[in-house]
Design a protein that fits this description.
globular, 8 helices, binds zinc ion, Metallo-beta-lactamase, Chain A, single chain, five-stranded mixed beta sheet, seven-stranded mixed beta sheet
């Protein structure tokens, strides 16, 4: 989980495959990571934009900067109409690559382009990425977030659930859509929905996911009060500890993916479960659906 301030950007590497889930709020910030990780001139096998908010898509524009010479093979997003000019620019870059035949553009509403709600992508090292259709009736961009389950080459070694900024309506919908049965929602690590907002977690959600750890991608001085105190109360109630990018910087998980092996989490700095300067109780209105 890259430290991109208030936003999300998650890089996955497995056996030579590279996947990026969201790109954070700033092209320059993602660009620094592309340099650091030596991704210029390489192929990124899959990019998934979970939903259409700038703190998730804006940084992705940097992938298409000509001087970076990056090939993106597959790009998933929900393709909903949007008045946003910067999203239109990103889509123009995608369309140009599609015309050249170098990129396949997929709609998260039909992730395998075969009518099925679930598309499974196998990475070169054997890890699997399950990309799930978002709630078709989601009433705002957050509730149109695609869910993604990452499964290590040996499924017992590592699993992770990521669902963008899905809020109460959609996290309830994930179970009713049957994702708790296929591909299954129980995982080791949860990417905290919606940057640790109280509207991105519930007892029922954690009962379904049963994570050991939550990773929160959050800016230290965000206006929203993320990570909300109510969310932390729910995590604590379920004995879920957390790391957060504002306190811990980039968070790295390594899983060997071999039988009976486990995974390790390392951070740039700090301790887990830290409080942040932004943490506060949300307004009752923001959390009324609890
Ligand atoms: Zn967001």
């Amino acid at each position: 989980m890259l430290d991109v301030d208030q936003g999300d950007a998650i890089l996955i590497q497995n056996g030579g495959s590279t996947v990026l889930v969201d790109g954070g709020p700033k092209p320059a910030t993602l660009g620094r990571y592309l340099d650091q990780l030596a991704l210029n001139g390489t192929t990124i096998d899959a990019v998934v934009l979970t939903h259409q908010h700038a703190d998730h898509y804006q940084g992705l524009r940097e992938l298409f900067a000509t001087r970076r010479n990056i090939t993106v093979r597959y790009f998933w997003e929900n393709q909903d109409p949007s008045p946003n000019v910067t999203l239109a620019r990103l889509r123009d870059s995608i369309a140009a690559r599609v015309r050249r035949g170098s990129l396949i553009y997929r709609d998260t509403d039909d992730p395998c382009a075969n009518g099925a709600p679930l598309c499974t992508v196998t990475l070169k090292g054997g890890a699997k990425l399950h990309i799930m259709r978002p709630d078709p009736d989601g009433q705002k961009p957050n509730n149109r977030s695609a869910a993604i389950k990452l499964v290590g080459p040996d499924s017992a070694s590592f699993t992770m659930w990521m669902a963008g900024d899905a809020e109460q309506d959609e996290i309830r919908w994930f179970s009713s859509a049957g994702y708790d049965r296929s591909p299954g929602m129980r995982v080791d690590v949860l990417k905290a929905d919606h940057h640790g907002s109280c509207n991105g977690v519930s007892d029922a959600y954690l009962d379904a996911i049963r994570p050991s750890i939550a990773l929160v991608s959050v800016g230290s001085a965000n206006d929203y009060g993320h990570v909300h105190l109510q969310a932390k109360t729910i995590y604590r109630r379920h004995r879920v500890s957390w790391y957060r990018t504002d306190e811990n910087g980039t968070i790295t998980i390594r899983a060997r993916g071999t039988l009976n092996s486990s995974y390790t989490i390392s951070v740039e700095r700090g301790e887990h479960n830290a409080d942040g300067q932004s943490d506060r109780r949300a307004s009752a209105a923001a959390c009324e659906e609890q």
